[in-house]
Write a sequence for this structure.
């Protein structure tokens, strides 16, 4: 599989690639060339797969390492991408500042090894709320900086964080913050250009807002499931893609939090390394 997706361009249908941005429609199992139609179908399928995870219908070992993240991603995106559950093979960045963990020098693996070390060395069962917020912010900052997949890192990392909180007195309600607040804090947590470690400071207020004490067992056993899903999928597929096709606008990959995802191959035309 890796040899099929070994360059930035190989992830896209060639005829859909914008020559200036290097962005197009990702190859997918629907063989769908329309970017916006793909986004709608992708959100529908991953929402259903996410509900299966939250309902405990899938047994994914909670090892809090790279294999744990891969298993989540594989389940969520199995209906959409051939490379579901596999590391990206290209280096990426998003907006100004430092790129995400590199795949060509072991940096991506190093970030996820640090995630595993922190997650497994924490006593989640008896953790205080303040320590829960601080530690969760740090774990997420490292997962976000690793950014191990070509697409779907946000949905995968939220499920990972849900698994992390499962053994604690707290849970996450992601809809307590807006997507804009979440994305801005995530971007601000990335390391400086000459640093390795992310800075979770910007994420602490976010995790303070979304961390709530677990209630007594609900009469409705699906209440917690719906709370988590509503945070991960705050809009319907149509709402999530509405307005994206207006004249002059780039697809979401090319305009999330600024210039969007970038590769080493396209340092110009609004994209930078």
């Amino acid at each position: 599989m890796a040899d099929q997706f070994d360059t930035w361009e190989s992830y896209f249908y060639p005829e859909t690639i914008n020559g200036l941005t290097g962005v197009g429609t990702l190859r997918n199992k629907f063989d769908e060339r329309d970017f916006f139609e793909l986004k709608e179908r992708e959100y529908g399928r991953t929402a259903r797969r996410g509900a299966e995870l939250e309902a405990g219908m899938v047994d994914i070992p909670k090892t809090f390492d790279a294999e744990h993240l891969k298993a989540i991603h594989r389940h969520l995106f199995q209906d959409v991408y051939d490379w579901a559950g596999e590391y990206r093979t290209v280096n990426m960045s998003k907006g100004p500042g430092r790129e995400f963990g590199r795949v060509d020098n072991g940096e991506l693996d190093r970030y996820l090894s640090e995630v595993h070390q922190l997650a497994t060395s924490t006593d989640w069962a008896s953790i205080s709320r303040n320590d829960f917020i601080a530690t969760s912010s740090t774990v997420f900052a490292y997962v976000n900086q690793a950014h191990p997949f070509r697409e779907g890192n946000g949905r995968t990392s939220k499920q990972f964080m849900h698994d992390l909180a499962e053994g604690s007195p707290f849970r996450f309600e992601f809809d307590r913050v807006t997507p804009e607040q979440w994305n801005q804090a995530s971007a601000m947590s990335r390391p400086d250009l000459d640093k390795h470690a992310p800075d979770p400071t910007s994420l602490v207020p976010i995790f303070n807002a979304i961390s709530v004490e677990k209630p007594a067992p609900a009469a409705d056993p699906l209440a917690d499931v719906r709370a988590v899903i509503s945070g991960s999928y705050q809009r319907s597929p149509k709402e999530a893609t509405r307005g994206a096709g207006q004249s002059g606008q780039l697809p979401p990959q090319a305009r999330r939090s600024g210039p969007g995802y970038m590769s080493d191959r396209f340092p110009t035309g609004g994209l930078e390394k």
Notes: The chain has one domain: 2-262. DSSP finds nine helices and four strands in the chain. The first strand starts at residue 93 and ends at 94.
